[in-house]
Each structure stands twice: as structure tokens, then as C-alpha cells.
Design goal:
- The complex is a heterotetramer, with 2 copies of chain A (324 residues) and 2 copies of chain B (323 residues).
- Chain A is built from 12 helices and 14 strands.
- Chain A is α/β, with parallel strands linked by helices.
- In chain A, strands 3-2-4-5-7-6-12 form a 7-stranded mixed beta sheet, with helices on both faces. A 5-stranded mixed beta sheet of chain A has the order 9-11-10-13-14, with helices on both faces.
- Chain A folds into 2 domains: 179 residues, 3-Layer(aba) Sandwich (Rossmann fold); 128 residues, 3-Layer(aba) Sandwich (Rossmann fold).
- In chain A, α10 links the parallel β13 and β14.
- The relative contact order of chain A is 0.12.
- With 323 residues, chain B is of the alpha/beta class.
- Helices cover 41% and strands 10% of the residues of chain B.
- Chain B contains 11 helices and 7 strands.
- The longest helix of chain B has 24 residues.
- Classes of the chains: A alpha/beta (324), B alpha/beta (323).
- At the C-D interface, α3, α4 and α5 of C face α5 and α6 of D.
- The complex binds thiamine diphosphate (2 copies) and magnesium ion (2 copies).
- The site of one magnesium ion has 6 residues of chain D, from β4.
Chain lengths: 324, 323, 324, 323
């Protein structure tokens, strides 16, 4: 099977959908000639032409609003945010316009807003943010974050085919750093479904995005110490796979919630509430969060490293919890 | 046109002056008294496949695009068989078959949406247009700017219609912008920008007609500033003491309905009797619609949970829910 | 002591600060002549003049940005959002500009953004939202929500004197519906400190805003049934009073997290994580959430009523938990 | 002026062509090669108490306002004794004593902030001005519109300076706006809108001088479009293959530094020898600053947790942290 990078897998997914369905089109800043700041849409202009690969002025709000209008008319826009940090500039159009239309009057808004997020590349406070929780807390949206190339392709395709607005986070650290087997053919990874990346017995680590790799790294290390981590990759944050989370927690009896995003109000809280309510009787230890602290993402490498969760921090937490 | 003008006036009058005071309207009340010519003069000339995105005061656009009056009253009164089934208030009524995309409260948000509608029309090789209404206060929002610029760059078939009614809530125009006419902003984006007497339905009609023709030819967007006046408070609970009495007097004399009547009478296109009869018909129509709405049920609580997502067994498409 | 409504208390608090400190000023839409859509700033124009009570165009983003600029220059702007729903239009300026300045380069941004939020008045999807979590999840901001007139005055004054950007939520349902004793003199209610509104023994109810009253109503009813609720009013959501939450949970052994905001990604999750991590050993039952469901706020009274938590729903949850 | 132009050029050259390639710059690199005249011609005439909000390419504003060159290099190299102590990159350097408020990456956001700065100046009865720089691509953002309108309505002392360098990343101007000159937008808000040759430092100086004088008199904001060209890629990793070769050639001939040199030589204000000496001095200055930065330590990890809030024992004010 072909081995693709994460960025190639996303490109292939969008590409296949554009081949399959003439209503799919790409819109954003520098996505046409230039092929996008991270080259996700590279080559699409040549293949699909100006009507379907559209460069825009620097107007995030208008881009999102226009995508919504086009979606209402039967198109399926795939919007690129040059960095997910700038989604804040189109925020109102997402949470107030796109997210609520179907509930309010029944019309469909099939659109995807995608772009690079996350830290680890010394991008500083504005090219490193993980801001998925704004949208996880907005009813009407779906939120997706793949961690593998295989999932990236399957999830982008499922997102494009979904009838609802989907916010699709791509972790920029993974774009060219990971590779895996990605079938050439058409397949979907369903939204709302988690994946168990590694079976384990002692502690369930629930995570998503680039942190899946951190969890796997820690799990491999800890196995040598006799601590067995199960690693659950959420893949979708809204709706998220409650059953998978609960199953893993019930099986292991202990749980660590891991994310790169900052702590207060982060996804770990949501998961803790689910677990505290629905798996309380199965818990053999406290619910532990391993997350970034509540600060902006600092720039200098030593600061950024201190800010980000990593395998060491996870292992320290896991050792303590295992001993509980 | 006279029919729609009067039907709008009477419907809104009933909402603002009768139903609201009787506590039968749920939530806030915004009406477009005095500004009816803008909606009527523009919507009336749209073709099938065109889309209008009305402002919060453009009652007439809904009538002209064929939303039954009783549906509109049901919406104002939060009834289950209104078009939003009680989810939404006032004129937040959407209907894609009839080419209607409703405003949302964050003002200006429909301007970018109108661009997307026109972009889809272009991609689908249709000769249709999108017509978006907003107030002069709304023109200060960034979304309006981004949308006008985008429409000009992409040559989209969007007609931006600004109803300049001299106030945004309590804020008068000199606190809203520092120019004489907003119409000059057309030039700032590379599209025609014209101003027109918004209380003259025929002038509105002609100005919009030109813009539409231009857009259908593929020549892109236009910006039209309709000068008018808000002949009520911002909403039914606002006494508008900040509006000088003499301004109201001055604009009363320019009432768009009386003007059209005078015009039609002078040319003997209609008679006083025709007008009286028309008034009677309209009164009856509104009576019936109100009665229908009043007799309609409220939605049931648990419905609140339905339809957040569009999925395979979409709640909106389940039978037995339509009015 | 004078008895004031919630709205009067806020007005008095701002007023006193404007008297005290010439750098405090009010800015927003229709705040001057008109005195604000809910009359919070009524009379201020006459007292403080045009330079300190400023009507703006409809430009939420520019208003927030301008307030930030003025704050950097030593002023203390108090921004009114006509409805907190529209804060989404100034979102980027809040989360990317104002919130991060101090961390990034050390400058102070003392400003308050305040306005009405919350449902219960049939305002429909855009005049009823509770969107505090966007800001609770933004490091650098403070988030405040008073539930009494006394607190409203003390908290708005403390917010104005704080050196950081504070998002101050006023519950529109409470504006004229509640009244309590409000001292005429200068006092502050410290940010970040919760208040126990009612002592109880069986179940800690952690809540904030208008739901405090719902909790008290339920507590009074349940007392008759022999179930004793303790009601904790957070008052500040960021930073929030971890110690008070933990103390109440430890004392009661059971906890219900109550809020008007929607469930997924809501404040209850954050609290559940804190409790699940730090009070795990003290828990005698699952962590229960009573919140609005994950939908926009519907308009029709029966729908809105179904959407909102109320005393009945809380009582049902409490009875079940008490029997656990 | 020549000194600042050349110091800017040399510093940025070192960053883009030497340090970046040696992997010594942390993160992205945006420089203003070819556009130096805009920053220099405007910042150089500011008085104490004035505030400048530079764009991501206005290196010179920092120099002119007195930020030591070594501090700037420390910032680019993420060092602990840079002005942001490693928290921020590139030119995200703020210093209120020197009247500098840095850009944040979401483009256009500093325009409303500039309004607030000028509002405070007005409230504090100061005759100062705020000068905000942004690119022609940024002009499409809603925040720029809201800010220009607000400044005009409130008659704020803001000078909006658009450096139109023909590209926004890969996007050329005809995909950014549908007009000839952005300068016409001044009229859309009720402020003067002028265009000027942005590669002519003296012309920039004079144009900005007029705007400043106007603002100091209390006559409100101005909008200045400086036509220039981005003589590099968007950032150091961008080869800019989308830029036609002949455009670059054409703009090379208009290099602002060579032009000023020619002007000064022709008038015998300076000699070739002076220029050589100046070049030497500058090279040495930059060498020293780079050496200082390279010798400076990185910040320590745990500092990442400090200074989120401003409180009583503010981390930023604790001793032993200043460079
Ligand atoms: C973004 C936003 N800010 C504030 C409001 C509150 N608001 C509702 S209507 C209105 C005035 C609108 O003025 P204008 O655009 O002139 O329309 P008009 O009401 O005069 O028709 C305001 C401020 C809003 N709905 N949206
Ligand atoms: C709101 C926002 N959208 C997108 C970007 C990504 N971006 C960084 S620089 C740039 C181009 C800016 O063009 P222009 O304003 O002309 O300034 P120039 O770089 O040409 O000086 C873009 C799109 C951003 N920083 N902010
Ligand atoms: Mg108006
Ligand atoms: Mg540019």
C-alpha cells in the first residue's frame, strides 16, 4: 500500500472528493497558484480550475460567510485557514451563522473549515494555538482532529460528505513528520468514532492529535516498567465517542486525559465530567489531566518545550497513578 | 406594489400596535414603518432562482417571495406551525425554495453570505442575483466591508442595499459615519454606488433594476443607498425620545404609501374606491392570518432537542411537522 | 441599607469608579444619550460628559480594539456589549490582542467588557446565549458573573480596578427581578473568590449566575424532603475558586454541577476535572451535571423552558444522587 | 535617514540571508527589503508621546524609536534578555515608554488599537498622534474598515499608512481589491486619502508630515497609501516564484536607498567616502548586535508559567530579569 505523509493524505482526500463531486470546491488565502502555505492544495488549481480553487482577499469572516452562502446553495466548500489561529477572525460567522442555521430553519450547511493548528515548531503565540474548544462548545458544529495519515484522508473525506459544518484541525507538527499506509481507493473514517491505538490494562490515556504519538511513546517506555497504558485517539471531539471513552476507562479503572491545549476549559474537563458521571463506580483512582498550562504559547524553544506536554510528563503522571 | 406596501404596513401595524401590546408577540418587535418602499421596490422584480437576504425590517420581502402571511404571524407568535416551528423569532424565516435567507442578529453577517450565494450561482452558471439589505448602522461592521470588497474582486452578482433610515437604535448618522452619503463607498470597492430616495418606490425599483441588469450581465455587484426614515422606535419598547419631533413630521410628509397612492390617483390608474377596497381586503387578510396564528399551538418542549445536526433521519423532514 | 436591583447596583458600581478615577470611561453602542439598551449607563452622559461616555458605530471589533489601545495608554475603559451574543464579533480582538499582551511583552490592559447574557426572556438564539466558556478557556482574561446585586456592585468595581482584561457577564433575567441590600459606600468583592450561598450537608451544588437562585429554590424545597443542599456561587469563572469548590465537595461527599450554559465543553466539565483529580477520595457518588442541552437557545416559551435547567430538574437529579 | 535606511537594510539582510540560513533565527522571517523608506520617512518625524504601531515589516520604526539593535536581534533569536524575554518572535516587540505597540499576527488588529491610543490622547488632552502601518492585503480585513470609520467619526489623531507592496503572500493586488488606488478609500470614511511613492523617503516624509500636522491640529485621521514593492519572498522560506522577474527588475531600479544616496550625492550633501564609512559603521554595529545576541542565553523553561496576569508582584517587574 502507498505510504503517504499526513499532508499528502489530506491533499489526496480533498482531491478525490473534488473528482467525485463537482460541488466540492476549495477557497482560502493563497490556496490556488501557491497551493496553500503548507501546500495542502498544491496542484489543485491546475486540475480543477479557477472556479473551484479560489484565492481570496485577507478576509476570514467573509470567507467563512461566503462558504456558508455557497453551502446553502448546494455547494460543498472546503475553506482553508492559513493558520487555525486566524479562525478567530471569522469566529462570529462560524458560531452564530453556520453552526445554527440547521437548528433554526432546517437548511443544510455542508462545509469544512480546515487548517494547521498546534505547537512544536516555534511558531510563537499566533502560529501555535490549539483552539478546538471554542467549537467543541458550539452546538451545531462538528470538530475533527486526525492523528495519522490514514485517518487524515478518511476523516477529511467524511467531513466533506457530512451535511453539517465541520471544523477540521490538522496538526502542523505532523504534516511532514509522520507517514503511514494510505489506501489509494475511496474510504471514509466515520466522524464521532474514536480508535484504540494501543490496547492496555492499567491506565486509559484518552487523547487526540499530535499527543497520540506522545502517548504511544510513553506507553512503549512504561511497558518496560510493567505499566500498561491503553491509548485512545478521539479523532472527533464533537460529537465525541462517549462509548469508547467509557469502555476504556471501565476496562482499565484508571484514566489520564492528555492534550496539548491549555488546561482550564479544555477537552480533558469534558471527558472528566463524562467519566465522573458515567464510570464513577469503575474508577480506581483520581482522574488525571496532563495538559499545557494556562498561558499563551511561548516562542523560545525552552519555553515552548516546558509548555507542551511530552512523554516524560505523561510517564511521571502515569507512574504516580499506577501506584495509587 | 401598492398591495404589498399596504399589506406590509398593516401587518406590521398589527404586530407593533395591537398584538405586542396585548402581549401576544413573543420577544422583541422591530418593524419597518416608513421604509416599505425599499423591500417592495426591490423584491418585486426578482426572478426565480434569485435570492434575497432581508434586513430585520424588510417584512415585504417575505410576502413578495411567497411566504404565506399566516406563517409569518405564526413565527412572530412562536407557534409550532410557523416556518421555524418556534425556534426563531420575528423575521428570522428562511426558505431556500423561495430564495430567502434570513438575517441573524449579529448585524452585517448576511453580507458575506450573499457573496457565497452569488459565488455558487456563478459556479453553477446561473444568471441569478443575490440581494442583501442592511441598515446604515450595520455598514460600520467589518463584515460589510469584507463582503463588498470580496464581491467586487470576484465580480459577484450581489446587490448591496443599504436602508439609511437615519438611526441605528438611538445612534444618529453623524455618530455612525463621517461622510455625507454612504453611496460613495461603492467607489472604494470598485462598484457603482448610487443613492436613491428610499421612500419613492418607483425610484427604488428603477435603481435596483439597473443594478440587477448589470449583475445578470456578469458585471458584478452594486451598492445602493436608500435614504429613508424609521417612523417608529428602534423596537416596540423604545419610545425614541431621542428623535426630534420635526424630523418625524418632515418624513411623515414623504410617506411612501401616500406618495404612491397620489401618483396612481393622479394618473387615474386607480380610484379612491379601489384604495378603500384594497384596504378592506388587506385588513381581512391580516385578520385571518392573525386568527390562524392565535389558534395555532405552541411547539412541545422536547422538540427543543431535535435538529441540531442534519443527518439521515433529519427531524425537519419527518412528516407531521409541517403546518 | 438601600435596596437596589441588580441593574442599579451595576450602575452604581461603575458610577462610583468613574467618580473616583478619571481614567475610567464607558464606551459602546447607545450608551450615552440612550443610557444603554438596558439602561445600565443611564445618566452617566449628563454627569461625566462626552469624553467619558462614548457612543460608537456598530463595530464590536473596533470597540474592543480601541478599548485595548486606550487601556495601554493608561485609561480604564468599560466596554458595553449591547448583548453578550455580539461579543463574537469582537472575539479576535479579545482573545488574540487583549488577552495576550501582558504575557507577551508585559504591558497592562486594564479593561472591562460587560453586557447582558443568558436566557429566560424569550430572546431567541441571539439574545439568550451564555458564552462565558470561550473566555474561561483563554489564558490572560478574567471572567466574572455576579448573581446578587451586592456582588454585582462589588465585582464590577473590583473588575474595573483589576489590571487585566475582565469579561463581566450580567444576567439579563436578573436585571430587574432581584433586589438586595447594597451599601452606598465603596466596597469590593474580590475576583476569584466563590461564596457559599447556603450551607448544606448532603450534596454540594456548584453553580453561578441566575442558576444560583434556581439552586436556592431547589434547596428550600428539598430541605422539606430531608435532603440538604449546599449552594456554592462561583462568582468568578476565571480564575475560579478551586479551594471553595473542593471544600464544599469534601464536606458533602456528593456534588452536582449546575449551569445554564450548554453541556459539552461547559464549566461543569472543568469543575468535574478538578474534583475528579483533587477530591476523588472524598466522593461518595458520581459527579452529576445539570445543564442546558447541546442546542442553540430556542425561542418559543415551551422550548426555552425545556432547554433551561430549573429547580425541578435539579431536584430530580439531587434526589437520585442523595439515594445513591 | 540614510543611516536608518541602511541600518535596517543591513540588519534585515543579516537576518534573512545569514542568520536564518545558519539556523540561528528561531521561527519565521519576514523582512521589508525595498520598503524601508516608509518606516523611516514616517517614524523619524514623531515626537515624544507619539505612538507607532508598525507592520510585520517595519524594522526601522523600532530603531528610530530607540530600541537597541541588540535587543531586536535577541528577540529574533529568542533570547532571555530580549525585550519579550523569548516569549515573542520577530518584530513583536512592545515598549510603551518608546511609544511602540507591536503587531500581532492576525492582520489589521492594530488598526482599532491605534484608534484607542488616539482616543486616550484626546481624553488626556495631548497633541500626540498614533501612526499605524499595514499592508494592502491587510486592508481587506474588517478591522481596518471599522477602525478607519471609527477614527473618522471620532476625529482621532490616527495616521493609517498602507504599504502597498503589490503582494500579500502570493496574492497580487487584483485578487485583493478591484480599484486602482486604495487611497480612494479615505473618501469613503471622510478623511484625506493620498498616495505617495513609497520608495521615495522624502516624499513619504512630506506626506506623513502633512497628515501629522492635521492630526495635531485636531482635524482627525488621514489615510496614506505608499506604493512600493516587496523585494523578497513573503518570508525567508518563500522563493516567490509567483512574482514575475521583470517586476523585480523594474523595482530594483527604484531602490529607496540608492535613490536617497543619489539625491544626497548630487547635492553634495555627502560624498562617496561618507557612504563607505557609513556602511562600515553599520556593518560593525550589526556585527556587534549579532554577537551580543548569539552570546545571550535562552530563557529557562519554568519562566513559561509567569506573567499571564498583571498583579501585585508582577513577574515583568521583578529584578534580575532585564537585559
Ligand atoms: C453586531 C451587532 N451589534 C449590535 C446589535 C444590536 N442592534 C440591533 S439593531 C441595532 C441598530 C441597527 O441599526 P441599522 O443597521 O441602521 O438598522 P435599523 O435598525 O436602523 O434598520 C443594533 C445596534 C446587533 N444586533 N448586532
Ligand atoms: C487575519 C490573518 N490572515 C492571514 C494571515 C497570514 N498572513 C501573514 S502575512 C500575510 C500577507 C499579508 O499581506 P499584506 O497585508 O499585503 O502585507 P505584506 O506581507 O505584503 O507586507 C498573510 C495572508 C494573517 N497573519 N492574519
Ligand atoms: Mg438605521
Ligand atoms: Mg502586501
Amino acid at each position: 500500500m502507498p505510504v503517504l505523509t499526513y499532508v499528502e493524505a489530506i491533499r489526496q482526500g480533498i482531491w478525490e472528493e473534488m473528482e467525485r463531486d463537482p460541488s466540492v470546491f476549495v477557497i482560502g488565502e493563497d490556496v490556488a497558484e501557491y497551493g496553500g502555505a503548507f501546500k495542502v492544495t498544491d496542484g489543485m488549481l491546475e486540475r480543477f480550475g479557477r472556479d473551484r480553487v479560489i484565492d481570496t482577499p485577507i478576509s476570514e469572516s467573509a470567507i467563512v460567510g461566503a462558504a456558508t452562502g455557497a453551502a446553502l446553495m448546494g455547494m460543498r466548500p472546503v475553506v482553508e485557514m492559513q493558520f487555525m489561529d486566524f479562525i478567530a477572525c471569522g469566529f462570529d460567522q462560524i458560531v452564530n451563522m453556520a453552526a445554527k442555521i440547521h437548528y433554526r430553519w432546517g437548511a443544510k450547511v455542508p462545509m469544512v473549515i480546515r487548517g494547521p493548528s498546534g505547537a512544536g515548531v516555534h511558531g510563537g503565540p499566533y502560529h501555535s494555538q490549539s483552539n478546538e474548544m471554542w467549537f467543541v462548545h458550539t452546538p451545531g458544529l462538528k470538530v475533527v482532529i486526525p492523528s495519522t495519515a490514514y485517518d487524515a484522508k478518511g476523516l477529511i473525506k467524511a467531513s466533506i460528505r457530512d451535511e453539517n459544518p465541520v471544523i477540521f484541525y490538522e496538526h502542523k507538527f505532523l504534516y511532514r513528520r509522520i507517514k503511514d499506509e494510505v489506501p489509494d481507493e475511496d474510504y471514509l473514517v466515520p466522524l464521532g468514532r474514536a480508535a484504540v491505538r494501543r490496547e492496555g490494562a492499567d491506565i486509559a490515556v484518552i487523547t487526540y492529535g499530535a499527543m497520540v504519538w506522545t502517548a504511544l511513546e510513553a506507553a512503549a517506555e512504561l511497558e518496560k516498567e510493567g505499566v500498561s497504558l491503553e491509548v485512545v485517539d478521539l479523532r472527533s471531539l464533537l460529537p465525541y465517542d462517549e462509548a469508547a471513552v467509557l469502555a476504556s476507562v471501565r476496562k482499565c479503572g484508571k484514566v489520564i486525559l492528555l492534550h496539548e491545549d491549555t488546561r482550564t476549559g479544555g477537552m480533558a474537563g469534558e471527558l472528566a465530567a463524562l467519566i465522573g458521571e458515567r464510570a464513577f463506580d469503575d474508577l480506581d483512582g483520581p482522574i488525571i489531566r496532563v495538559t499545557a498550562p494556562d498561558t499563551p504559547v511561548p516562542f523560545a524553544p525552552p519555553l515552548e518545550e516546558y509548555f507542551l506536554p511530552n512523554a516524560q510528563k505523561l510517564m511521571a503522571a502515569a507512574r504516580k497513578l499506577a501506584a495509587y | 406594489m401598492l398591495y404589498y406596501l399596504k399589506l406590509t404596513r398593516e401587518s406590521e401595524f398589527r404586530i407593533e400596535k395591537a398584538l405586542y401590546r396585548q402581549g401576544k408577540i413573543v420577544g422583541g418587535v422591530y418593524v419597518g414603518r416608513g421604509q416599505e418602499a425599499i423591500g417592495v421596490g426591490s423584491a418585486i422584480q426578482l426572478s426565480e432562482g434569485d435570492v434575497v437576504l432581508p434586513s430585520h425590517r424588510d417584512f415585504s420581502s417575505f410576502l413578495i417571495r411567497g411566504i404565506p402571511l399566516k406563517d409569518i404571524f405564526c413565527n412572530w407568535m412562536a407557534r409550532a406551525n410557523g416556518p421555524t416551528r418556534g425556534r426563531e423569532n420575528t423575521l428570522h424565516i428562511g426558505n431556500l425554495e423561495r430564495g430567502l435567507i434570513p438575517i441573524i442578529s449579529p448585524l452585517g453577517d448576511t453580507c458575506p453570505v450573499a457573496c457565497g450565494v452569488a459565488l455558487a450561482m456563478k459556479q453553477q452558471k446561473k444568471k441569478n442575483v443575490a440581494l442583501v439589505h442592511f441598515g446604515e448602522g450595520t455598514s460600520s461592521r467589518g463584515d460589510v466591508h469584507e463582503a463588498m470588497n470580496l464581491a467586487a474582486v470576484m465580480k459577484l452578482a450581489v446587490i448591496f442595499i443599504c436602508n439609511n433610515n437615519a438611526y441605528a437604535y438611538s445612534t444618529s448618522t453623524e455618530k455612525q459615519y463621517a461622510i455625507e452619503d454612504l453611496a460613495v463607498r461603492g467607489a472604494a470597492y470598485g462598484m457603482p454606488g448610487v443613492k436613491v430616495d428610499g421612500n419613492d418606490v418607483l425610484a427604488v425599483y428603477q435603481t435596483v433594476a439597473k443594478a440587477i441588469a448589470r449583475s445578470r450581465k456578469g458585471d458584478g455587484p452594486s451598492f445602493i443607498e436608500c435614504k429613508t426614515f424609521r417612523m417608529t422606535g428602534h423596537s416596540a419598547h423604545d419610545a425614541a425620545e431621542y428623535v426630534p419631533e420635526k424630523l418625524i413630521k418632515r418624513w411623515e410628509a414623504r410617506d411612501p404609501i401616500l406618495r404612491l397612492e397620489k401618483y396612481l390617483l393622479a394618473r387615474q390608474i386607480i380610484s379612491r374606491k379601489d384604495i378603500r377596497e384594497l384596504d378592506e381586503t388587506i385588513k381581512k387578510e391580516v385578520d385571518e392570518a392573525v386568527a390562524f396564528a392565535e389558534a395555532s399551538p405552541f411547539p412541545k418542549g422536547p422538540e427543543a432537542l431535535e435538529g441540531v445536526y442534519c443527518g439521515p433521519d433529519c427531524w425537519w423532514e419527518r412528516p407531521g411537522k409541517e403546518s
